[in-house]
Amino acid sequence: MAEWVGIGRRARRCYGFDEVALAPGEITINPDEVNCSWKFSGKEFKVPILAAAMDGVVGVDFAVKMSKLGGIAVLNLDGVQTRYENPSEILKEISEADPETATALIQKAYTAEIKENLIAKRVSEIKTAGGYAAVSCIPQNADRFSEIAEDAGADCFVVQSTVTTVKHIASNYKPLDLYKFCNEKKIPVIIGNCVTYKVTLDLLSTGCAGILVGVGPGAACTTRGVLGIGVPQVTSTIDCAAARDFYYRKTGKFVPIITDGGMSKGGDICKAFASGADAVMIGSAFTRAKEAPGGGYHWGMATSHSNLPRGTRIKTGVSGSLKQILFGSAVVDDGSQNLMGALATSMGSLGAKNLDEMHFVEIIIAPSIQTEGKVFQATQRVGMGK
Asked: Which of 72, 131, 201, 261 could disulfide-link 218, Cβ–Cβ 3.0 to 4.6 Å?
Protein backbone atom coordinates (compact mmCIF):
# COMPACT_ATOMS: atom_id res chain seq x y z
CA MET A 1 0.00 0.00 0.00
CA ALA A 2 2.93 2.36 0.55
CA GLU A 3 5.20 4.07 -1.96
CA TRP A 4 8.81 5.12 -1.59
CA VAL A 5 9.10 8.86 -0.92
CA GLY A 6 12.88 8.83 -0.34
CA ILE A 7 15.70 6.58 0.81
CA GLY A 8 14.40 4.36 3.58
CA ARG A 9 11.01 6.11 3.85
CA ARG A 10 7.68 4.90 2.54
CA ALA A 11 4.34 6.72 2.66
CA ARG A 12 0.81 5.42 2.31
CA ARG A 13 -1.47 7.00 -0.32
CA CYS A 14 -4.61 8.42 1.28
CA TYR A 15 -7.76 9.84 -0.28
CA GLY A 16 -10.14 12.73 0.28
CA PHE A 17 -13.68 13.33 -0.96
CA ASP A 18 -12.63 15.03 -4.23
CA GLU A 19 -10.53 12.02 -5.29
CA VAL A 20 -13.18 9.29 -5.16
CA ALA A 21 -16.66 8.56 -6.49
CA LEU A 22 -19.40 6.02 -5.76
CA ALA A 23 -20.21 3.45 -8.45
CA PRO A 24 -23.91 2.60 -8.94
CA GLY A 25 -24.74 -1.06 -8.35
CA GLU A 26 -27.16 -3.55 -9.87
CA ILE A 27 -30.25 -2.41 -7.94
CA THR A 28 -31.89 1.01 -7.63
CA ILE A 29 -34.49 2.03 -5.05
CA ASN A 30 -37.09 4.77 -4.95
CA PRO A 31 -35.42 7.48 -2.80
CA ASP A 32 -38.71 7.88 -0.90
CA GLU A 33 -38.31 4.32 0.35
CA VAL A 34 -34.79 4.46 1.82
CA ASN A 35 -34.14 4.94 5.53
CA CYS A 36 -31.61 7.68 6.31
CA SER A 37 -31.99 7.59 10.10
CA TRP A 38 -29.30 6.59 12.58
CA LYS A 39 -29.30 5.43 16.18
CA PHE A 40 -27.30 7.06 18.93
CA SER A 41 -27.32 5.83 22.51
CA GLY A 42 -30.64 4.05 22.07
CA LYS A 43 -32.40 7.01 20.42
CA GLU A 44 -33.24 7.24 16.72
CA PHE A 45 -32.63 10.47 14.81
CA LYS A 46 -34.07 10.93 11.34
CA VAL A 47 -31.21 13.27 10.35
CA PRO A 48 -27.75 11.60 10.58
CA ILE A 49 -26.04 14.99 10.71
CA LEU A 50 -24.63 16.86 13.70
CA ALA A 51 -23.97 20.59 13.58
CA ALA A 52 -20.41 21.31 14.71
CA ALA A 53 -19.68 22.91 18.08
CA MET A 54 -18.49 26.21 16.63
CA ASP A 55 -19.69 29.64 17.62
CA GLY A 56 -20.57 30.75 14.10
CA VAL A 57 -22.66 27.58 13.65
CA VAL A 58 -24.58 26.74 16.82
CA GLY A 59 -26.42 28.98 19.26
CA VAL A 60 -29.39 28.15 21.47
CA ASP A 61 -32.01 28.94 18.82
CA PHE A 62 -30.13 26.98 16.18
CA ALA A 63 -29.82 23.95 18.50
CA VAL A 64 -33.55 23.95 19.17
CA LYS A 65 -34.39 24.27 15.47
CA MET A 66 -31.97 21.47 14.53
CA SER A 67 -33.52 19.22 17.17
CA LYS A 68 -37.03 19.81 15.88
CA LEU A 69 -35.88 18.95 12.35
CA GLY A 70 -34.55 15.59 13.57
CA GLY A 71 -30.83 16.23 14.04
CA ILE A 72 -28.34 17.22 16.73
CA ALA A 73 -26.55 20.55 17.14
CA VAL A 74 -23.62 20.72 19.57
CA LEU A 75 -23.16 23.92 21.59
CA ASN A 76 -19.58 25.00 22.35
CA LEU A 77 -19.17 25.54 26.11
CA ASP A 78 -15.70 27.05 25.59
CA GLY A 79 -17.04 29.77 23.32
CA VAL A 80 -18.93 33.04 23.37
CA GLN A 81 -22.18 31.44 24.52
CA THR A 82 -20.70 30.93 27.99
CA ARG A 83 -18.44 34.00 28.07
CA TYR A 84 -21.10 36.63 27.36
CA GLU A 85 -24.59 37.08 28.75
CA ASN A 86 -25.62 38.41 25.34
CA PRO A 87 -23.40 36.60 22.82
CA SER A 88 -25.17 38.13 19.81
CA GLU A 89 -23.34 41.42 20.40
CA ILE A 90 -19.85 39.94 20.14
CA LEU A 91 -20.92 37.68 17.25
CA LYS A 92 -22.10 40.76 15.35
CA GLU A 93 -18.76 42.46 16.03
CA ILE A 94 -16.84 39.47 14.67
CA SER A 95 -19.00 39.23 11.54
CA GLU A 96 -18.59 42.94 10.79
CA ALA A 97 -14.78 43.05 11.29
CA ASP A 98 -12.58 43.55 8.24
CA PRO A 99 -10.43 40.55 7.19
CA GLU A 100 -7.19 42.15 8.43
CA THR A 101 -8.40 42.50 12.02
CA ALA A 102 -10.76 39.51 12.30
CA THR A 103 -8.29 37.07 13.88
CA ALA A 104 -7.08 39.62 16.43
CA LEU A 105 -10.68 40.50 17.34
CA ILE A 106 -11.57 36.82 17.78
CA GLN A 107 -8.51 36.30 19.99
CA LYS A 108 -9.54 39.28 22.13
CA ALA A 109 -13.20 38.14 22.33
CA TYR A 110 -12.15 34.79 23.76
CA THR A 111 -10.07 36.27 26.57
CA ALA A 112 -13.28 36.96 28.53
CA GLU A 113 -13.68 34.38 31.30
CA ILE A 114 -16.13 31.52 30.97
CA LYS A 115 -19.02 32.01 33.41
CA GLU A 116 -20.15 28.68 34.81
CA ASN A 117 -23.69 29.95 35.47
CA LEU A 118 -24.06 30.48 31.71
CA ILE A 119 -23.32 26.79 31.07
CA ALA A 120 -26.41 25.78 33.03
CA LYS A 121 -28.39 28.67 31.55
CA ARG A 122 -27.70 27.69 27.93
CA VAL A 123 -28.53 24.03 28.55
CA SER A 124 -31.72 25.04 30.31
CA GLU A 125 -32.69 27.37 27.44
CA ILE A 126 -32.36 24.54 24.93
CA LYS A 127 -34.28 22.06 27.09
CA THR A 128 -37.05 24.53 27.95
CA ALA A 129 -37.64 25.12 24.23
CA GLY A 130 -37.92 21.37 23.63
CA GLY A 131 -34.49 20.80 22.11
CA TYR A 132 -31.92 18.04 22.43
CA ALA A 133 -29.05 19.56 24.45
CA ALA A 134 -25.65 18.36 23.23
CA VAL A 135 -22.70 20.37 24.51
CA SER A 136 -18.94 20.30 23.98
CA CYS A 137 -15.68 21.41 25.57
CA ILE A 138 -11.96 20.70 25.54
CA PRO A 139 -10.56 17.91 27.78
CA GLN A 140 -9.09 20.35 30.34
CA ASN A 141 -12.58 21.67 31.16
CA ALA A 142 -14.52 18.43 30.81
CA ASP A 143 -14.68 17.29 34.45
CA ARG A 144 -16.15 20.54 35.78
CA PHE A 145 -18.28 21.57 32.79
CA SER A 146 -19.84 18.13 32.39
CA GLU A 147 -21.07 18.17 36.01
CA ILE A 148 -22.79 21.51 35.48
CA ALA A 149 -24.24 20.52 32.11
CA GLU A 150 -25.45 17.16 33.39
CA ASP A 151 -27.16 18.75 36.40
CA ALA A 152 -28.84 21.24 34.07
CA GLY A 153 -30.31 18.41 31.98
CA ALA A 154 -27.88 18.01 29.07
CA ASP A 155 -28.57 15.00 26.84
CA CYS A 156 -25.05 14.42 25.49
CA PHE A 157 -21.52 15.60 26.24
CA VAL A 158 -18.74 15.93 23.65
CA VAL A 159 -15.07 16.05 24.63
CA GLN A 160 -13.21 17.45 21.66
CA SER A 161 -9.69 18.55 20.81
CA THR A 162 -7.61 18.80 17.63
CA VAL A 163 -6.10 15.35 18.28
CA THR A 164 -7.37 13.09 21.06
CA THR A 165 -5.58 10.03 22.44
CA VAL A 166 -6.05 7.90 25.52
CA LYS A 167 -2.35 8.26 26.33
CA HIS A 168 -1.78 12.00 26.77
CA ILE A 169 1.43 13.13 28.45
CA ALA A 170 1.52 16.46 30.32
CA SER A 171 3.50 17.71 33.29
CA ASN A 172 1.88 21.11 33.96
CA TYR A 173 -1.70 19.84 34.19
CA LYS A 174 -3.49 16.58 34.88
CA PRO A 175 -4.73 14.89 31.68
CA LEU A 176 -8.37 13.85 31.55
CA ASP A 177 -8.88 10.18 32.39
CA LEU A 178 -11.18 9.21 29.52
CA TYR A 179 -11.95 5.77 30.97
CA LYS A 180 -13.10 7.27 34.28
CA PHE A 181 -14.91 10.14 32.60
CA CYS A 182 -16.94 8.05 30.13
CA ASN A 183 -17.94 5.47 32.70
CA GLU A 184 -18.97 7.94 35.39
CA LYS A 185 -21.21 10.10 33.19
CA LYS A 186 -24.94 9.40 33.22
CA ILE A 187 -25.30 10.82 29.71
CA PRO A 188 -23.60 9.56 26.51
CA VAL A 189 -20.12 10.89 25.79
CA ILE A 190 -18.68 11.49 22.32
CA ILE A 191 -14.90 11.91 22.08
CA GLY A 192 -12.57 13.06 19.32
CA ASN A 193 -10.90 13.80 17.13
CA CYS A 194 -8.89 10.95 15.68
CA VAL A 195 -7.92 9.62 12.24
CA THR A 196 -6.22 6.24 12.72
CA TYR A 197 -7.22 2.62 13.37
CA LYS A 198 -5.14 2.10 16.52
CA VAL A 199 -6.18 5.33 18.24
CA THR A 200 -9.83 4.62 17.43
CA LEU A 201 -9.52 1.19 19.06
CA ASP A 202 -8.01 2.80 22.14
CA LEU A 203 -10.77 5.40 22.34
CA LEU A 204 -13.51 2.81 21.85
CA SER A 205 -12.25 0.95 24.90
CA THR A 206 -13.01 3.96 27.13
CA GLY A 207 -16.76 3.29 27.08
CA CYS A 208 -17.61 6.32 24.94
CA ALA A 209 -20.86 6.48 22.95
CA GLY A 210 -19.35 7.89 19.75
CA ILE A 211 -16.08 8.81 18.03
CA LEU A 212 -15.38 11.94 15.96
CA VAL A 213 -13.12 11.38 12.93
CA GLY A 214 -11.14 14.17 11.28
CA VAL A 215 -8.09 16.33 11.84
CA GLY A 216 -7.88 19.58 9.89
CA PRO A 217 -10.44 19.18 7.07
CA GLY A 218 -12.81 21.95 8.20
CA ALA A 219 -13.38 24.94 5.91
CA ALA A 220 -12.17 27.42 8.54
CA CYS A 221 -9.42 25.21 9.97
CA THR A 222 -5.75 25.84 9.14
CA THR A 223 -4.29 23.00 11.26
CA ARG A 224 -2.98 21.18 8.19
CA GLY A 225 -1.14 24.28 7.04
CA VAL A 226 0.08 25.41 10.46
CA LEU A 227 1.00 22.02 11.94
CA GLY A 228 1.28 19.83 8.85
CA ILE A 229 -0.89 17.09 10.32
CA GLY A 230 -4.04 15.32 9.15
CA VAL A 231 -5.31 12.40 7.09
CA PRO A 232 -7.80 12.90 4.22
CA GLN A 233 -11.33 12.06 5.27
CA VAL A 234 -12.14 9.08 3.04
CA THR A 235 -9.10 7.13 4.23
CA SER A 236 -9.43 8.18 7.87
CA THR A 237 -13.12 7.26 7.95
CA ILE A 238 -12.47 3.84 6.40
CA ASP A 239 -9.65 3.13 8.87
CA CYS A 240 -11.62 4.24 11.92
CA ALA A 241 -14.72 2.36 10.77
CA ALA A 242 -12.60 -0.79 10.47
CA ALA A 243 -11.63 -0.33 14.13
CA ARG A 244 -15.31 0.13 15.04
CA ASP A 245 -16.20 -3.13 13.28
CA PHE A 246 -13.34 -5.04 14.93
CA TYR A 247 -14.38 -3.69 18.33
CA TYR A 248 -17.99 -4.74 17.68
CA ARG A 249 -16.97 -8.29 16.72
CA LYS A 250 -14.78 -8.52 19.80
CA THR A 251 -17.17 -7.02 22.38
CA GLY A 252 -20.66 -7.02 20.86
CA LYS A 253 -20.84 -3.27 21.48
CA PHE A 254 -21.45 -1.03 18.45
CA VAL A 255 -20.11 2.52 18.81
CA PRO A 256 -20.92 4.89 15.94
CA ILE A 257 -18.25 6.69 13.94
CA ILE A 258 -18.99 10.33 13.10
CA THR A 259 -17.00 11.88 10.24
CA ASP A 260 -16.27 15.47 11.24
CA GLY A 261 -15.38 18.11 8.66
CA GLY A 262 -14.46 18.45 5.00
CA MET A 263 -18.02 18.18 3.67
CA SER A 264 -19.47 21.22 1.94
CA LYS A 265 -22.12 19.59 -0.24
CA GLY A 266 -24.40 16.58 -0.46
CA GLY A 267 -22.01 14.43 -2.48
CA ASP A 268 -19.32 14.69 0.19
CA ILE A 269 -21.77 13.49 2.84
CA CYS A 270 -22.76 10.52 0.68
CA LYS A 271 -19.08 9.58 0.26
CA ALA A 272 -18.55 9.79 4.03
CA PHE A 273 -21.32 7.24 4.61
CA ALA A 274 -19.92 5.02 1.87
CA SER A 275 -16.58 5.18 3.70
CA GLY A 276 -18.19 3.75 6.83
CA ALA A 277 -19.55 6.73 8.77
CA ASP A 278 -22.68 6.24 10.89
CA ALA A 279 -23.27 10.00 11.04
CA VAL A 280 -21.47 13.16 9.95
CA MET A 281 -20.67 16.47 11.61
CA ILE A 282 -20.60 19.60 9.48
CA GLY A 283 -20.00 23.26 10.18
CA SER A 284 -19.58 25.64 7.25
CA ALA A 285 -22.64 24.33 5.36
CA PHE A 286 -24.80 25.30 8.34
CA THR A 287 -23.33 28.79 8.67
CA ARG A 288 -25.26 29.60 5.51
CA ALA A 289 -28.54 29.13 7.39
CA LYS A 290 -30.34 32.27 8.49
CA GLU A 291 -30.68 30.70 11.97
CA ALA A 292 -26.88 30.36 12.38
CA PRO A 293 -25.48 32.85 14.91
CA GLY A 294 -22.42 33.80 12.81
CA GLY A 295 -24.40 35.80 10.26
CA GLY A 296 -22.84 34.03 7.31
CA TYR A 297 -19.34 33.88 8.82
CA HIS A 298 -17.44 30.89 10.19
CA TRP A 299 -14.24 30.47 12.19
CA GLY A 300 -12.47 27.40 13.56
CA MET A 301 -12.36 26.60 17.26
CA ALA A 302 -8.60 27.11 17.36
CA THR A 303 -8.73 30.56 15.72
CA SER A 304 -8.74 32.18 19.15
CA HIS A 305 -5.44 30.63 20.30
CA SER A 306 -3.46 33.50 21.79
CA ASN A 307 -0.09 32.48 20.34
CA LEU A 308 -0.66 30.07 17.44
CA PRO A 309 -4.11 30.45 15.83
CA ARG A 310 -5.02 27.41 13.73
CA GLY A 311 -8.10 28.73 12.01
CA THR A 312 -9.35 31.72 10.09
CA ARG A 313 -12.62 33.55 9.66
CA ILE A 314 -14.28 32.79 6.34
CA LYS A 315 -17.36 34.28 4.71
CA THR A 316 -19.94 31.71 3.64
CA GLY A 317 -22.89 34.03 3.23
CA VAL A 318 -26.52 33.25 4.05
CA SER A 319 -28.36 31.22 1.41
CA GLY A 320 -31.59 30.13 3.13
CA SER A 321 -33.18 28.56 6.16
CA LEU A 322 -31.87 25.55 8.08
CA LYS A 323 -34.86 23.58 6.80
CA GLN A 324 -33.87 24.43 3.21
CA ILE A 325 -30.31 23.31 3.81
CA LEU A 326 -31.47 20.00 5.26
CA PHE A 327 -34.62 19.24 3.26
CA GLY A 328 -34.96 21.82 0.47
CA SER A 329 -36.42 23.02 -1.71
CA ALA A 330 -32.97 23.96 -2.99
CA VAL A 331 -32.63 27.33 -4.68
CA VAL A 332 -28.87 27.06 -5.34
CA ASP A 333 -27.12 24.77 -7.82
CA ASP A 334 -24.00 23.80 -5.89
CA GLY A 335 -25.27 20.92 -3.73
CA SER A 336 -25.21 22.90 -0.48
CA GLN A 337 -28.99 22.71 0.08
CA ASN A 338 -31.36 19.74 0.54
CA LEU A 339 -28.58 17.59 1.98
CA MET A 340 -31.05 14.92 3.11
CA GLY A 341 -32.63 14.80 -0.33
CA ALA A 342 -29.17 14.32 -1.86
CA LEU A 343 -28.40 11.51 0.58
CA ALA A 344 -31.69 9.70 -0.09
CA THR A 345 -31.31 10.05 -3.86
CA SER A 346 -27.72 8.80 -3.74
CA MET A 347 -28.73 5.83 -1.59
CA GLY A 348 -31.53 5.01 -4.04
CA SER A 349 -29.17 5.19 -7.01
CA LEU A 350 -26.69 2.94 -5.21
CA GLY A 351 -29.30 0.41 -4.10
CA ALA A 352 -28.74 1.04 -0.38
CA LYS A 353 -31.91 0.72 1.73
CA ASN A 354 -30.26 2.17 4.86
CA LEU A 355 -27.01 3.66 6.08
CA ASP A 356 -25.59 0.26 7.04
CA GLU A 357 -25.90 -0.82 3.40
CA MET A 358 -24.18 2.41 2.31
CA HIS A 359 -21.04 1.09 4.01
CA PHE A 360 -20.74 -1.58 1.31
CA VAL A 361 -21.25 0.37 -1.91
CA GLU A 362 -18.36 0.45 -4.36
CA ILE A 363 -15.87 3.32 -4.03
CA ILE A 364 -13.67 4.09 -7.03
CA ILE A 365 -10.58 6.30 -7.31
CA ALA A 366 -11.70 9.10 -9.62
CA PRO A 367 -9.34 12.12 -9.73
CA SER A 368 -11.32 13.64 -12.62
CA ILE A 369 -14.69 13.35 -10.89
CA GLN A 370 -14.87 17.11 -10.21
CA THR A 371 -13.74 18.26 -13.66
CA GLU A 372 -14.75 15.69 -16.31
CA GLY A 373 -17.13 17.34 -18.76
CA LYS A 374 -17.51 20.42 -16.55
CA VAL A 375 -15.61 22.96 -18.64
CA PHE A 376 -18.60 25.31 -19.01
CA GLN A 377 -19.41 25.13 -15.30
CA ALA A 378 -15.77 25.90 -14.48
CA THR A 379 -15.43 28.84 -16.87
CA GLN A 380 -18.81 30.29 -15.88
CA ARG A 381 -18.31 29.52 -12.17
CA VAL A 382 -21.69 27.83 -11.72
CA GLY A 383 -22.71 24.45 -10.26
CA MET A 384 -19.59 22.32 -9.65
CA GLY A 385 -17.42 25.12 -11.04
CA LYS A 386 -17.96 27.45 -8.09
From this structure: 261
